[in-house]
Amino acid sequence: DTDAADHQDLQGLRVVVTAGGTREALDPVRFLGNRSSGKQGIAIAEAAAARGAEVVLVAGAIDIPPPDHPRIDTRRIESALELQDEMAGLLTDADVVVMAAAVADFRPREVATSKIKKTHQQDPAHAPDESAPVIELVRNPDILAGLVRDRARSGVDRPYIVGFAAETGDAEHTVLELGQDKLRRKGCDLLVVNQVGVGVTFGQDDNTVTILRRDGGEPVTTGPTTKAHVSHTLLDVIATDLRR
Ligand code: CTP
Ligand code: CA
């Protein structure tokens, strides 16, 4: 049943949802970002709250206002490192974590303390430096993989962990093959796979997703449909697993 909004079947469950894109600062006015709108993560937070869950929504850059619901506590973050810090404080209490945020894989190695200028005049005796800067990047931590690792170390089977996979597919592999590989690599309980690209999914109101399960159960595909419907389908799968 995907129309469970009035069932309150998630009452008492503590759900953490991340949504939106991270922004990785270059200087005080510039950042590296991505096209995530945050709509799918926000829809999951709303659906979970409507079904009775206590929700913490950890939101990066989002294209719509954060939801106004008494059971949704929204925390704003900007960068991947801020997201990691915020998650660390939420984990011990969470029953379910849904990582719908688009987390930057890399960040600039250095953040300039003042605005980067077009030309550099280092020495008045020489011509100004007109060369273009090269931005060096370093890897961000994989927050989802860290959650799975911390759970394994803790020896308890909570929280239930859901990842998202933004895949375009390539010449050798379909979106679903890449999703299966990613699920195995990440070790989360579910991986929600969708197809992304300019104008496809990112920023759109409809979505087609396939939910892959680590336990080898049959994948669940839904769509094209609203992000609200995708959210309820996902929560149905989670609720069924948690009851086992
Ligand atoms: N994720 C994360 N921390 C990162 C990067 C991604 O927690 N530094 C999470 C995302 O929130 C998502 C999942 O990992 O739930 C998969 O993100 P995706 O970008 O598809 O996978 P990556 O492992 O980063 O692989 P790649 O981008 O190379 O496909
Ligand atoms: Ca990535």
Write a brief structural summary.
With 244 residues, this protein is an alpha/beta fold. It has helices at residues 39-50, 80-88, 143-154, 175-186, 227-243, and strands spanning 14-19, 24-27, 30-32, 54-59, 72-76, 96-99, 106-108, 137-139, 160-167, 190-195, 206-213, 220-226. Strand 9 (160-167), helix 4 (175-186) and strand 10 (190-195) form a beta-alpha-beta unit.
Write out key terms for the chains shown.
244 residues; alpha/beta; eight-stranded mixed beta sheet; two-stranded antiparallel sheet; 5 helices; elongated; binds cytidine-5'-triphosphate; binds calcium ion
For the sheet with most strands, the description reads: 8 strands, mixed
Task: Output the structural class.
Answer: alpha/beta
Q: What ligand molecules are bound, each kind once? A: cytidine-5'-triphosphate, calcium ion
What is the chains' assembly state? single chain
Query: How are the strands ordered across the major sheet?
Result: 5-4-1-6-9-10-11-12
Question: Rg from C-alpha positions?
Answer: 20 Å
Distance between the termini: 17 Å
Chain-averaged pLDDT: 92
What does the overall shape look like? elongated
DSSP strand (E) fraction? Answer: 25-35%
Return residue spans where pLDDT drops below 50 for at least 5 consecutive residues.
none
Topology readout:
Elements (H helix, E strand, L loop, with lengths): L13 E6 L4 E4 L2 E3 L6 H12 L3 E6 L12 E5 L3 H9 L7 E4 L6 E3 L28 E3 L3 H12 L5 E8 L7 H12 L3 E6 L10 E8 L6 E7 H17 L1
Parallel strand pairs: 1-4, 1-6, 4-5, 6-9, 9-10
Antiparallel strand pairs: 2-3, 7-8, 10-11, 11-12
Helix pairs in contact: 1-5
Bound molecules: cytidine-5'-triphosphate and calcium ion (CA).
EC number: 4.1.1.36, 6.3.2.5
Pathway: Cofactor biosynthesis; coenzyme A biosynthesis; CoA from (R)-pantothenate: step 3/5; Cofactor biosynthesis; coenzyme A biosynthesis; CoA from (R)-pantothenate: step 2/5
Catalytic activity: N-[(R)-4-phosphopantothenoyl]-L-cysteine + H(+) = (R)-4'-phosphopantetheine + CO2; (R)-4'-phosphopantothenate + L-cysteine + CTP = N-[(R)-4-phosphopantothenoyl]-L-cysteine + CMP + diphosphate + H(+)
